[in-house]
Amino acid sequence: MNDTTKIETKSADTADINTAFDGFMRGFESYKEENDRRLADIERRGAADPLTTDKLARLDRALDDLQHKAMRPQLSGAAVTSTSSLQAKAAFEGYVRRGDATRMMGVEGKALSASAGADGGYLVPPETETAVIRALKAISPIRAIASVRQVSGTVYKKPFATTGVGTGWVGEAAARPQTTTPTLAELSFPTMELYAMPAATQVLLDDAAVNIDQWIAEEVRLAFAQQEGQAFVSGDGINKPKGFLAYDTIANASWEFGKLGFLSTGVAGAFPASNPSDKLIDLIYAVKAGYRANGTFVLNRSTQATVRKMKDADGQYLWQPAAQPGGTSTLLGFPVVESEDMPDVAANAMAIAFGDFQRGYLIVDRIGISVLRDPYSAKPYVLFYTTKRVGGGVQDFEAIKLLKFAV
Questions:
Q1: pTM, whole model, 2 decimals?
Q2: Do 229 and 245 sit in the same domain of this protein?
Q3: What is the pairing mode between strands 249-251 and 260-264?
């Protein structure tokens, strides 16, 4: 059998993860030693040795790579048990491998949710959809920490009270005055179409060893995750979800509903030279206690490299690696999520976000992922136009705060 017809499901073996994690911890110790040497040079000479700075930068890049390997999640498939699921799965495989839509239409007659019609493609079986969503959650940083809701319609609407119901204390026999009626408003989260178009040769599709569920999930997950990640952070809401950085912002002392509050570092494009970690502490405590308990830092790799060098008054590093394989690094005791779609530290940039993203940001997935088989447009390759509908936006404007690198 030709090697090009084989597809391997790449998953992280436990031994490999442990080895990567051990290497990561050793690398972090070397990193701390070099950073301590850099700080000592600054104290003695007023400037760091360029060789030490260069070595520290190389260690920083290596540490990021090791961290990604050590924290890589394992993907596993769900078992298919019901007869209807087996029929839907077999019909879908026949459609993907040979273009046979007859069985898909037969399945549609038994379960209306199994097919979307030939014009728009066919809905994948639940097991395939689960594999795609699981893969997305594993590599999409915001999806991993946000609240996710599945809907069957194109728009999810969530009511909320802008003013609470009137309350008060009364005596046992005192008159009960009528309470005020709350003012209700509505948040709307439309779902937008996200697509990818993986390609395969017919030889590959004829290979019985190829797991169609895994193949679809592996082919589209990176494309979907990249587009989702950008949209959830900074999407403008036009034909895509609205990212939390796209909302209006306001100084946290003047916070109002509908806007995200921010704190300033006091220096354009940088942390203050004196006690820079105080700004991170201020950001944490800008979030109310009810949200802070589930708080997470969100920043990109470059910003993480900056905060990784910071120490507290006792000389302890504020950033700490995960305590075990598959865990999450922490900053001041709170989890850190690395999102490359966050801006770099620059003048007026909102480069760090902190808060309870599960309560603050909502991702809406419309049920169903559709696949349309196209064997004609790019012969001899078979294209698979794969679409899913997803929306997103801020649902609680108190739950997320931003750090602005500005005066």
A1: 0.79
A2: yes
A3: parallel
Residue type, 302: S
pLDDT surpassing 70 at residue 164: no
Q: How far is CA 234 from CA 190, 244, 275, 321, 346, in A?
A: 16, 6, 30, 28, 16
One domain, residues 143 and 216: yes
User: Which residues have a Cβ under 8 Å from the Cβ of 23 and sit 6 or more positions away?
Assistant: 66, 70
> What is the tally of structural domains in the chain?
2
Integer angstrom CA distances of residue 219 from 9, 212, 376:
11, 10, 20
**Greater pLDDT, 348 or 46:** 348
Domain range for residue 266? Answer: 77-162+183-300+339-407
Q: Please check whether residue 324 lies inside any domain of the structure.
A: no
Least confident residue range of 114-128, 140-154, 283-297: 114-128
Distance in angstroms (rounded) separating the CA atoms of residues 161 and 163:
5
118 shares a domain with 140: yes
- The CATH number for 119's domain is 3.30.2400.10
Residue at 268: amino acid letter: A
Q: Which contacts (CB < 8 Å, 24+ apart) does range 83-88 have?
A: 84/110, 84/111, 85/125, 85/126, 85/127, 88/114, 88/125, 88/126
Is it true that the peptide bond before 335 is cis, omega within 30 degrees of 0? Answer: no
Mean pLDDT, residues 293-309: 96
CA–CA distance, 239 with 192 (Å, rounded to integer): 6
Q: Which residues pair with 250 in a beta bridge?
A: 261
